[in-house]
Amino acid sequence: MFAEACSRVSDFTKPLVISTRHQDGSVSSEVGTFIVLNREGWVMTAGHMYNSFSKFQSDVNKAKEIEEINNGRMARPGSPSSMVKLDPKLITNHSFWWGWDGVQVKTTYVNNQIDIAFGKLEPFNPDWVRSYPVLRDPATLRPGTSVCRSGYSFMDIKSTWNDEKKSFQIPRIPERDVIFFNEGMHTRTVSKGPSKDGGFAIRYVETSTPGLRGQSGGPIFDTEGRVYAMQVKTAHLPLGFQPTVEYEGRTVVENQFLNVGLGVHVGTIRDILDKHGVRYTAEGDDSGYRIVG
Questions:
Q1: 62: exposed, middle or buried (C-beta count within 10 Å: 0-12, 13-18, 19+)?
Q2: What is the pTM of this model?
Q3: Among 5, 36, 134, 208, which residue's Cβ finds the most Cβ atoms within 10 Å?
Q4: Number of Cβ atoms within 10 Å of the Cβ of 9
């Protein structure tokens, strides 16, 4: 049912790799997903993919403050000999890898309340993407619709730090071989009221299957490959019963939950893109496509 749609969506669904290096020299990485919106290179992902970058900015300021304190102590005779130590897990280097080498995202907008971020890839060649997404008409979304989700789950990317080049290195990612799909149903629409940023209606599409680690920022789409929502989180709904199991000689009570996915509603996405003048292809009222922006 989703085979053709999955093939189409794979064209504009790309891996996002975030690499961080810490004060103690350790390197870690995180994988997410982003959507290429148009031929101008505008992209969209989950807002929480920028959390580590916010921490990096904060950690850089902390390191500068500690350096100033230590320099001040060294300059004053009779001052305490103990120096303030840096937290070994302070982030000293940070990098986004946006699907291609040598590109960066500029003009970034991040809304943490809604959990959406977008920006413009530079440089960008529109021929890198064979087909671009169509954002579905928000008025046509209905619970009970079959949907599918794509992203880069189950990937163990190990970034390394090249001290000579002062840059991160990651292994090659065979995108079409590792992109992961899981289907489900639009169970209900979750409304959270207006946002603090621009007065947008905060709406999410809830799905009967959970989003998986690595799929954040990826599309939730219908059988035609039209973008229905953007995956951002998984919610855990308590089922109200607690069976007991034996574990290592102990009786353990296990709370049971239903894991469901939540994606930013395409109506909210389109409202935000319209507000910021980002062009996209939209499904029209007559089921045709039109360029908006």
A1: middle
A2: 0.91
A3: 36
A4: 25
